[in-house]
Amino acid sequence: MKHMPIRLNLSPSDAVLGKGDIHFVQKVTANVVTLLAKYAGAVPQSFTHDELAKLLDEGHFAIEYGYFSDRQAARRARAGRSLLSRLSLKAQLGAFQCETWCEVMIEAETEGEFNRSSARWNEFVPKLHEKVRSRLEHGLLKTHADSPIDPKLLSHVPSRTKAMGQLRAWEKTKDPMIFVKKSIFNGQNAKRVHPEVESAIQVELAHFLHPNEIYPSQVLDAVNAEVRRKNLARAVSGEELLTETSLSTVERRIDELDQFEILAARKGVAYAKNKLGAHGGGLTLQAPLFNMEMDEWEMDLMAQLKAAGADVSDPSLRDLEFGRYWVCVAMDAGSRTILGLKLSVKPNAMDAKSVLWMAMRDKTELAASLGCETPWAQHGHVYHVAVDNGPAFVNADFKAALSDLAIDYSVLPAGVPKLRARVERVFRSIIMLLIPFLTGRTFSNPQERGDYPSTQYAVHTAESIVELLVRFTVDVYHNRKHRGLEYATPNNMWDKLIAEFGWSPPMSQHKLRHILGLKFNRKTGPHGVLMNGINYHSDRLALHFQKHGRQNVEVSVDPENIGHISVWLDRGVDGGWSTLRACQEGLEGISFASWERSIFELRQNNRAAASLTQDVMDRAIEWIKKIDAEQCAMRQLGPINLTVEQIQRAQRETFWGLSLGTEAQVSLKGRSASENQDVGLLSDEIEVEPSILPEELSVLSPRSEEIVEEWLFSDELGAEGDGRAMSDATGEENSNE
Q1: Which helix (H) or strand (E) holds 324?
Q2: Which helix (H) or strand (E) holds 62?
């Protein structure tokens, strides 16, 4: 990506986030991208493709693909900032069950086995129900066999009226979110709005749809003024007084409005058509990143499972120290380049999400750390994922993540390899070009293996297999002529397609961490959020803490970068995912595994002092950066990935009593070996002068000029905005959806 001019692949339906504002993509030419901020009086800004790509790479801008599309607009109008991946398993399965009914009806209609006639509905229902039941049992529900499933999920048959209504609604956006009960997004106050107050709200909404572009707060003032006028009459007649409404109620009603109607009424029909209307010149199937195929394959190679930290006592692993690894691969269908791969002991949704995340990351440094001579720079935003019926893919968690990232999803029938011929051909290439050189191969069947003692010759470990796979992928497969590409190499085809169609940069690292990170629960406090012995904080979280006090929040963590974490704030107008920065300097790009290792070794070496000084920690961070590259590839590509349980275990054993923040000053005054004999398990706790604990420092200290000039993401701003209190129709400034 770095050796050739970049041309970004953006469309009018995409939005660019920067400096806390949403920008329309006003115009895209071969050389220039013109953006227009979404606030009154905004002036168009033009950037070259290289300039905008650099701003995106540095984190000053982020792209929300399809933000102004019908699908995303309908989702925001229905669910606000809520995400399908944050709903309960019951809600997710219910939505996907309704979607399955729609898919089955469309397929049956195409095959001539179903029509929408009311007279024949009772004739079609048994066949449709049987297909839906079979698809759920052998697909989505198979991966949740251990979870309590509502029996009605399989037995429920909708009436024709409901089925046709759901089908018509689904055909417009094909978003499963439309099947989630809308009432769960409205909060408790929505149920208590009096009909007369609701009527006043609807009347004033007509004034909101006006070129004057009034703010929701002004609509609220007008509604409450009308409520007070009605209360005067009610007081005279002795009726119960009406309750004034809130700004959140008004904003929810605005969110329910049609997005095209809002733009047309406030900015003009031409403007709305330009921003939300259909446009020609769309992508073809040959465009890079438009279609990605994912599949898993059990390698024809016997290896040592114990070396990868696998639980060899697991019955599913046949109680052996040796076995065969699975490899999950994501391939770009247009260029045939491999965007991501992951080794695992057995297929699971977490590894599938890891491969998806890898497909949207630049892997050049990772490949270089494994000795590759060719860059592995193929990455970007994926538009569509095609998978089979494997348990890792037909999983509610995996499907919800794709939906929240605005990535389309297709499940192709199992047993028909030609439907995923490209990724299936990759596995055949590995069998023919790599496996014959490896000791311990199992061959395709017992007849081919003969008397070859595969288990006896099992010499490879997860680490060696990862290195072999990456070197083969990057230096061999990507540089080998491909008959399906008219004998061009995948690397050359990627460069050619990028030059022809442009490149779609990935969403911001914060958005990807929100959706794909490992999830934990933590409590907020004056110190922010404590995770892995590190305090994380932001001005936005400080304001939330001042208003709501201590809260239990969900935390999302990127195991490969502990410099930032994400927290979900449920309450307040700033609800949604928020990014917190580590109070300890120098942690950007540091992995959790390296951090845990360094803390453990430092504590082992410093037990006599019973504490770690700040200069020791600074030297440790520099040391971490040197050794991190050696292990990052193994963690990301192999079955030694960190799970939620492993991190929780490390926190109990390694980070007990560790709390690092900014300007921590360690005191060793008056401490001796004899004074610390009774400290016990907390003898290696870091001690800080009580007068200057980070928890007691002001979290709302005045900002320096340097910080004021920095460009930040909208979910990092909170109270740090540029002073423009925009409160538009959808309230996007306060969220990073």
Answers
A1: strand 322-332
A2: strand 61-64
Residue bearing tokens 């408790």: 188
Kindly write down the DSSP assignment for every residue of 676-723, as one continuous string.
GTT-GGGTTPPP--GGG-GGGS-TTPPPPHHHHTS---HHHHGGGS-S
> Measured in whole angstroms, how far is the alpha carbon of residue 222 from the centre of its chain?
39
Residue 709 CB coordination number (10 Å): 7
Pairing of strands 576-582, 561-569: antiparallel
Which pLDDT band, with edges at 50, 70 and 90, does 224 fall under? Answer: very high
Pair 50, 502: CB distance under 8 Å: no
* CA distances to 20, 389, 393 from 142, in Å: 43, 10, 11
Residues 6+ away with beta carbon under 8 Å from 589: 561, 563, 625, 628
Q: What is the pLDDT of residues 417-429, one digit of tens each?
A: 666 678 888 888 8
| CA pair distance 651, 123, nearest whole angstrom | 59
Question: What whole-number distance in Å separates Cα of residue 472 and Cα of residue 427?
Answer: 12
Three-state secondary-structure class, residue 235? helix
What is the number of other CB atoms lying within 10 angstroms of the CB of residue 445?
8
Rounded to whole angstroms, the Cα distance separating 93 from 105 reads 18
Q: Tell me which residue of 492, 495, 515 sits closest to 397, measured CA to CA.
A: 515
- Residue 339 has a pLDDT of 93
| Residue 486, Ramachandran bin (φ over 0: left; ψ between -120 and 50: alpha; else beta) | left
Using the 8-state DSSP alphabet, how is residue 244 labeled? Answer: P
Contact yes or no for 49/7 (Cβ under 8 A): yes
* Stretch (H or E) spanning 384: strand 384-387
Residue 295 bridge partners (DSSP): 329
Phi, psi of 522 (to 5 degrees): -140, 165
Residue 39 has pLDDT above 50, yes or no: yes
Which runs of E-coded beta strand occur in 415-559? 518-525, 528-531, 534-537, 552-558
Q: Using the predicted structure, report yes or no on whether residue 44 has a pLDDT greater than 60.
A: yes
DSSP string, 31-52: SEEEEEESSTT---EEEEHHHH
For 703-729, the pLDDT digits (tens) are: 333 333 334 444 444 433 344 333 343
Check: CB of residue 469 under 8 Å from CB of residue 341: yes
Contacts by residues 407-411 (CB-CB < 8 Å, ≥ 24 positions apart): 407/382, 407/383, 408/174, 408/383, 408/384, 409/384, 409/385, 410/384, 410/385, 410/386, 411/139, 411/387
HSE, CB side, 13 Å, CA atoms: give it for residue 676.
18
Alpha carbons 62 and 8: distance in angstroms, whole number: 13
How do 292-304 and 384-387 pair as beta strands?
Answer: parallel
User: Tokens representing 585?
Assistant: 């300097």
CB 586 within 8 A of CB 556: no
SS3 at position 139: helix
Tokens standing for residue 251? 């904003």
Percent of the chain that is helix, strand, coil (3-state, to 5): 45, 15, 40
DSSP conformational letter for 575: -
Residues of the chain above pLDDT 90, percent: 7
Q: Please write the tens of the pLDDT for every residue from 262-277.
A: 888 888 776 776 666 5
| Each residue's pLDDT tens digit, 291-311 | 899 988 888 777 776 645 444
In this predicted structure, the answer to whether residue 730 has a pLDDT above a threshold of 70 is no
State the pTM of this model. 0.59
pLDDT over 50 (residue 348): yes
> Cα dist. 228→192, 352, 389, 547 in Å?
17, 56, 59, 28
pLDDT in tens, 550-585: 888 899 988 888 889 999 888 766 678 889 998 888
How buried is 487 (Cβ within 10 angstroms: 0-12 exposed, 13-18 middle, 19+ buried)?
exposed
Encode burial over 320-346: b for 16+ CB neighbours within 10 A, e otherwise: eebbbbbbbbbbbbbbbbbbbbbbbbb
Please give the structure tokens belonging to residue 287.
Answer: 């465009």
SS3 577: strand
